[in-house]
Amino acid sequence: MDYETVIGLECHVELSTETKMFCGCSAKFGAPPNTNVCSVCLGHPGTLPVPNEKAIEYIVRIGLALDCAIAPHSLFHRKNYFYPDMPKDFQISQYDLPICIDGHLDVEVGGESRRIGITRVHMEEDTGKTTHAGDTGRIHDADYALVDFNRAGVPLVECVSEPDIRSPEEAAAYLRELRGTLLSLDVSDVRMEEGSLRCDGNISLRPASSTEFGVKVEIKNMNSIRSLERALRYEQERQGAALDAGEKLMQETRHWNENEGRTTSMRSKEEAFDYRYFPEPDLPMLEPRREWIERIRASLPELPAARRERYVSGSGLTIEQANAIAGDKHLSKLFEGTSAQFDAVPAKVVANWVVQNLAAVMNDRGITSEQLTLEPQRFAEVILMVDDGTISITAGKQVLDEMVATGKTAAEIVQEKGLRQISDISALEAWVDETIAENPGPVEQFRSGKEGVVGFLVGQVMRKSGGSANPKAVGDMFRERLT
Predict the structure, then answer these.
(1) Residue 357 backbone dihedrals phi, psi, to 5 degrees
(2) Are residues 47 and 182 in the same domain?
(3) Which of 72, 310, 338, 440 is placed for a possible disulfide with 376 were both Cys, Cβ 3.0 to 4.6 Å?
(4) pLDDT on residue 111
């Protein structure tokens, strides 16, 4: 049977505030275990929560960027459950009166734009981190567990999509666009490897002609966009095979095992009533002033979608180049700063250096765009050296890698490594003449109209020169001599 895949994503975003949501403890990542804690976030009797105004501002920024309506009245609730990572035995969250509702995010997949609805964006506090000591790191194999409460109480925004996503590829595009939007808003560092952006996927299958939802499965433990796509694809295939075999699916939460590339059952899925929500008695209703909301709206930066459109229509980039750069504010800043250095070099050429050559260097060295210290002026220097023939494209890639690693200028690296191309005609003549004399067959092929043979002849000169000859100048010289 043909099935339609139905996916909704729940994305949790740790906000980059200095302090936690309801107390003055530091919210910084990486401190020694249980050092950023106090009587409030540890849930000691008699303590009272005080909302973090900056966190409320950040969630309003997110809601406005996602075209949500900002509720005139919003309420915090207690989400009651017992688990070691929440010392109060309840989490302050939101239930039926969230801050932001009814938004959307447009994503592009396969050259087509798709609008994904946003059900709600609500505020809550994060939980602590539990480490299960054992061979697998899973709770059922653990000898004991350690709890670090540093993260407990950190401001956490949950962004819940509508079940509008129809493929794993579309889910990955949605998360990529959401991540780029959050990064542009400067409300979170959205580092999935550190847990400041986490995503749970809800997926079900239904007959292609049906409008009824199938049995929903929630997937957890996906720590990258690639993991999300892989997990959803596995679950899509698993559910399809089960339905074809006449098996009954169960609403449950499943764990994604990255190493094995499969999901395994964790527990049956909880319903909202299991948490016994009730209004938080120690916090008043949020009633943001309209003028305050409009000030925040006016301060919103250019978002990835608008930046992408500007790159394509104004700078002549391809859709692929614009997609690769626009969602990353650090790469965007480098691209725009570098392009501004040139009059003659097209922005499309700069974009190609960013998307291909710089991306390869970052991947090889295991660094992110945020960690990159390359200045636009330095980047422009190596691009110009290749463009004017001072060095070859191969040497340019080598110089770029060295620049990222050492911080040296392109000129210093070219001088130290002797990478400058020889373009002087008198210096190239001897190699060209030798090559013509040594290769009569290819020479006759070129003279008979086989233009592609010139590439072979140029390669022979490059070998003789140790890669220092200017290939364009050599090619021009061969065409002049042999025609």
Answers:
(1) -70, -50
(2) yes
(3) 338
(4) 81
